[in-house]
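Researcher: Sequence recovery benchmark, item below. Answer with residues only.
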């Protein structure tokens, strides 16, 4: 959201995860706000949101099981 306020522009940005690094004037959770009075480069870095209960270990286990069952139930064809 961009709002002009007496010579300054207020720019707000919402990120998908909690903001962990930014040059914003105000950061609260996943929202950053800049009060811009001159040309600047703005930036914000947020955490990568994850699916609850699905972490990297779960993904590796699921991938491994998929490979095991794929190879176990492979249909062999001869021509």
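Model:
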């Amino acid at each position: 959201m961009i709002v002009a306020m007496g010579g300054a522009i207020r720019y707000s940005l919402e990120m998908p995860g909690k903001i962990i690094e930014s040059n914003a004037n105000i950061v609260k959770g996943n929202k950053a706000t800049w009060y811009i009075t001159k040309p600047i480069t703005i930036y914000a870095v947020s955490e990568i949101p994850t699916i609850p209960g699905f972490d990297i270990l779960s993904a590796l286990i699921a991938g491994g099981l998929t490979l095991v069952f794929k190879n176990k139930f492979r249909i062999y064809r001869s021509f």
